[in-house]
Amino acid sequence: MSVKAFKLVSAVEREMLMGDKNYINIECIECCGKNLYIGTNDCFIYHFMLDEKVSTAGKVTFAATKQLHKYLGLKKPVSELKAASALTRLLVLCDNTITLVNMINLEPVPTGARIKGAVTFTLNENPVSGDPFCVEVCIISVKRRTIQMFMVFEDRVQIVKEVFTPEQPCAVAVDGYYLCLALTTQYIILNYNTGESQDLFPYCSDEKRPIVKRIGRQEFLLAGPGGLGMFATVDGISQRAPVHWSENVIGAALCFPYVVALDDEFITVHSMLDQQQKQTLPFKEGHILQDFEGKVIVATNKGVYILVPLPLEKQIQDLLAGHRVEEALVLAKGARRNIPKEKFQV
């Protein structure tokens, strides 16, 4: 049985991005407040402002206004973008180098500060330094079996730690001192401060794309064997039952109380409260699914879409109207912190 939890709404049409240039593909996206950044295969960054409009009937639409675009001067794709809004900086990974650019005008910082030798990178959303004018960046290094931690300031970068891993890492998420790593044959938790590590479960990165995602304090979501979405804490235990995905999940995101997953043909929505699949949305050629401050964005090579959640009260009323009282109660109790008190009482 399905619940209408999300609606798929177009945000950036292909014409806005590429006009009639068919060879341009979207490689990565970043969203920070109303700022949407897109990195392309021909080494450009595009900056759009996203305005959300809600009609009197409650229909949500997005209007994207292009601010500017910037060529990075290489013949390589822009592979990752991350915003550090406290520093008004955008971290841009292109050709194994992370460059710092201004979030507003997309100009590189005058000092030329950069991190070289990065395969992929992520930010620590639960930083340990306590410095508000610094972001902690974890990179998988081009050096074999090496992870590096950096502190990135407005106009300089500083290496903090280099950690060696038992096998080649291919994906990483960070929480405090804890790294959740997808290695060649397994997932592990590694404390980069103490060096202690803990095996989670086996996984073959040659057969499938690993997914490692921080979903909350000291908790991660991983693509496990047999098409399972597995939850793991930094202690190596799971406090929630897994969700059943398809075998070939490309990306996953969290929008409480739902886990959203993308595969070759569909976007699927599972409840974290009862692990049931609640909604399936046909979506072909998707290759990016990410959540940004609670906003879930999906993209194909040519366009960007936003998954707009329906109000929880409306979902609960729909379940009651369909005589699915148990599910409505589970959702109401589980999502209590997300519902205004007076509406919860009703």
TrEMBL record:
Principal place where this protein is found? Answer: cytoplasm
What GO CC terms are in its UniProt record?
Answer: cytoplasm; membrane
Gene encoding it? Tgfbrap1
**InterPro entries reported in the protein's UniProt record:** CNH_dom, Vam6/VPS39/TRAP1
The organism's lineage is: Eukaryota, Metazoa, Chordata, Craniata, Vertebrata
Give the location in the cell: Cytoplasm
Name-wise, this protein is TGFA1 protein
Which Pfam families does the entry mention?
CNH
Q: Which UniProt keywords apply?
A: Cytoplasm, Protein transport, Transport
